[in-house]
Amino acid sequence: MRIYLTHCSAKKDDSSKGSGKKVTPDKLYIEYVCTWNKVPGNDERRLRKFLMTRFDANWVENAEIKKIDYEDAILFSLGQNSAEIRLSKDKATVKINESNKRSKLEVNEEEGDRKIYYITKTQRFMRICKTKNVNWAIFSDLYGVWFSEIEHEWYGDDVGDPNKVSEEKFLQLLRDFDQKLQDYDEIWFYYNPGRFHPLYERLLQETSLRDKVNRFTHIREIV
């Protein structure tokens, strides 16, 4: 029996913060970017911050902003730099001209407004697992192995930052990993080699189930 797993940090959908609401992991890891009708306007600062954080486009903070092409696109411009977010049905494409960076956003119609969301790699992993109807879970810095059907409360960086995991907490997470996954024959661990925190590397090296672990880097390997 096989299970697919990936790691995560505490950064999730802030709409659940402080609510005490319990959710399954697939309800999280979606970042609200803005409401299309509120840019320029109330959500303008939120969109600027998103572009600055996700694309290292710090120049956006002082850029001019306007809607173009019959309000189907938002354009930021400052000198030689430009960033464009363009709508296309249920998607939006971000293009940063200065570095040719591109990214896809998700567009949802909600109460007459078009809400823009950034879908994280963790969320993409979960969606493909659900589509393929395979066993899957998330390895959480706070909860340990978080199975797809289990509900937990939202948590933030103050308790879930991998940089702040104590030795005692690590050993607790290690025991949790070994106990919850011991009945699986294969543990397929999806990760990004360039952004793999030492905490997770240590976990995979020290688990008693290490011989069952297969690492993979491409979502298309989920079958």
Question: How would you describe the overall organization of this protein?
Answer:
By secondary structure, the protein is an alpha+beta fold. The protein folds into 2 domains: 2-27 and 120-221, no CATH class; 30-119, no CATH class. 23% of the residues lie in helices and 34% in strands. It has 5 helices and 14 strands. The chain has helices spanning 44-55, 121-132, 157-160, 167-181, 198-206, and strands spanning 2-7, 22-23, 30-35, 64-68, 73-78, 81-88, 91-96, 101-110, 113-119, 136-140, 144-147, 152-153, 186-190, 213-216. The strands form 3 sheets. It has a 7-stranded antiparallel β-sheet with strand order 3-9-8-7-6-5-4. Strands 11-10-1-13-14 form a 5-stranded mixed β-sheet, with helices on both faces. A two-stranded antiparallel sheet has the order 2-12. Strand 4 and strand 5 form a beta hairpin. The longest helix is centred in the last third of the chain and has 15 residues, at 167-181. It is elongated. It starts with a strand and ends in a 7-residue tail after the last strand. The model has no long low-confidence stretch (mean pLDDT 90).
How far is the N terminus from the C terminus?
A: 13 Å
Cα shape: elongated
Total of helices: 5
Task: Count the E strands.
Answer: 14
What does the largest sheet look like? 7 strands, antiparallel
Unreliably modeled segments:
none
β-strand amount = 25-35%
